[in-house]
């Protein structure tokens, strides 16, 4: 007898990752229950950069504009300043373009090297609020606040999630087909599964003060900026280019909340008595460098901080988690829609965990650069007008210029690949070694399909959304693939483009099969003889061994 379910999918945690997962499932017509222990979205800034890849994924879900509306205006640069203090000398600057400047580059780029969307400066409090409003308005998303997950149990068919109301203490058990833990660094879902993490906890202790100030004369003494790094170790972030700012500073490991005067900390970090109109939030936080040993078990999966935690150096935390949500989201939708196979869910960890490890290691590298700069820098010498001071500033400026990967890691953000995935069919061309700093457009299977503007002005990425998409630059025998997909009940769109279109050289093969998340599953210049085996493999129904027979399978038999 079939057991009645409360939901197809229960999502634990309504931070950005859980919110995106709920929207992703809804995008494919799958309802979910979103369980969040807090009654309202966060009031802490947490992150302040949504990178270009995440903005592409937001555009795909129709939320890019609402995210931008709560962020910094498009004409402001993303400049990062290095100085002794607000009253002292600037000694280096990473010059980072504004959204307007990036959009001008995107409009003129047809070689696949540019993203479809510019990055966006916006804090997590605004991102969460915008996404939550969308979820609350979505009839396929049942938001339960304030409810906490106590325990997750499962058998072969059903996952039981025990939740408790944050105010009344009432408990409820939700039966679902799947559960995804997006419940953060202290994930109760991860604990229920007994999954351990590898890496280092509490690599530093940081004090944070989020405040309102109209004292722009002092705060912008070095001009407009996104971040200022001080030679004494403190950081100021301009959250809105107007009146909201955040200060971070390293403190002794044993420091506890309540032992630091937040206004005194702002003055200490800035080196001048900045007028603080209001302290919005303050806390002590300790960054971790961790990746979970596994991304799930059975019908339960992990995403976001529940399975990877990184320092904020590079902005890989929330951005990595959003890509997790899209990956597991479309795969769960395929399973629940009846066309995905079990290997599709197995591929989630195979695809996303290596990305998390690379991002973890690169963020740790960026943190090491900051620490090395602190060892090199002499704040007093920086401010000297002597030749010694000038030479020291030049030395530091060279170091900063040679170590700019924290904000220019296009290879990390756009160049990650799922080449080793069990549902990606590799071709004869070996994938190049990833350069974290440089993105090289490619349609090698597993890679993000490159952005190219089409004749109607839209990005080709706008076609990669639901089901599979067959990009066709003049192939003669696409019917074999289309008929195979139809026979297997797999939703597939055919995108015919002229063989002479600007996108043709960028896409490298006449046929490129793209998944709903915008990653390439297969490519070739003609349909393979075993088209049915091809489609079965990329949707998780075929074993690895079946790939070896693709080229030898009779076309009529495979259809």
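-> sequence recovered:
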């Amino acid at each position: 007898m079939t057991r009645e379910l409360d939901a197809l999918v229960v999502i634990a945690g309504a931070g950005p990752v859980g919110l995106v997962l709920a929207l992703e499932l809804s995008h494919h017509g799958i309802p979910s229950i979103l369980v969040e222990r807090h009654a309202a979205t966060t009031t802490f800034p947490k992150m302040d950069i949504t990178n270009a890849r995440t903005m592409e994924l937001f555009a795909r879900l129709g939320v890019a504009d609402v995210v931008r509306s709560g962020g910094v205006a498009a004409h402001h640069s993303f400049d990062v300043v290095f100085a002794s203090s607000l009253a002292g000398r600037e000694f280096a600057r990473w010059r980072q373009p504004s959204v307007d400047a990036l959009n001008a580059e995107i409009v003129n780029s047809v070689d696949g090297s540019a993203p479809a969307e510019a990055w966006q400066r916006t804090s997590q409090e605004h991102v969460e609020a915008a996404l939550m409003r969308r979820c609350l308005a979505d009839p396929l998303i049942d938001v339960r606040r304030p409810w906490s997950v106590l325990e997750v149990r499962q058998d072969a068919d059903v996952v039981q999630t025990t939740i408790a109301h944050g105010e009344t203490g009432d408990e409820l058990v939700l039966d679902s087909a799947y559960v995804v833990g997006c419940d953060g660094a202290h994930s109760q879902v991860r604990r229920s599964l007994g999954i351990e993490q590898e890496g280092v906890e509490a690599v530093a202790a940081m004090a944070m003060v989020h405040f309102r100030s109209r004292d722009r004369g002092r705060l912008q003494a070095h001009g407009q900026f996104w971040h200022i790094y001080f030679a004494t170790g403190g950081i100021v972030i301009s959250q809105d280019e107007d009146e909201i700012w955040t200060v971070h500073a390293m403190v002794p490991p044993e420091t506890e909340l309540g032992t630091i005067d937040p206004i005194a900390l702002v003055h200490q970090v800035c080196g001048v008595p900045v007028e603080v109109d209001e302290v919005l939030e303050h806390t002590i936080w300790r960054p971790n460098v961790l990746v979970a040993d596994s991304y799930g078990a059975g019908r339960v999966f992990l995403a976001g901080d529940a399975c990877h935690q990184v320092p904020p150096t590079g902005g890989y935390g929330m951005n990595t988690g959003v890509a997790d949500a899209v990956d597991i989201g479309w795969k769960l939708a395929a399973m629940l829609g009846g066309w995905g196979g079990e290997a599709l869910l197995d591929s989630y960890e195979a695809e996303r965990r290596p990305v998390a490890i690379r991002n973890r290691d690169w963020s740790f590298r960026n943190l090491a650069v900051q620490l090395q700069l602190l060892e090199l820098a002499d704040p007093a010498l920086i401010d000297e007008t002597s030749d010694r001071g000038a030479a020291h500033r030049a030395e530091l400026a060279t170091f900063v210029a040679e170590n700019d990967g924290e904000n220019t890691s296009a290879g990390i953000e756009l160049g990650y690949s799922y080449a080793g995935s069990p549902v990606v069919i590799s071709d004869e061309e070996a994938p190049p070694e990833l350069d974290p700093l440089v993105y090289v457009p490619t349609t090698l299977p597993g890679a993000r399909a490159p952005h190219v503007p089409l004749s109607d002005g839209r990005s080709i990425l706008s076609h990669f959304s639901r089901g599979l998409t067959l990009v066709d630059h003049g192939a003669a025998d696409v019917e074999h693939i289309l008929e195979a997909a139809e026979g297997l009940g797999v939703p597939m769109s055919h995108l015919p483009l002229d063989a002479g279109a600007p996108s043709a050289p960028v896409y490298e093969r006449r046929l490129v099969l793209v998944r709903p998340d915008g990653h390439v599953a297969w490519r070739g210049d003609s349909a393979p003889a075993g088209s049915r085996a091809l489609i079965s493999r990329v949707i998780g129904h075929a074993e690895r061994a079946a790939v070896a027979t693709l080229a030898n399978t009779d076309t009529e038999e495979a259809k």
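Confidence is low (pLDDT under 50) at residues 543-559.
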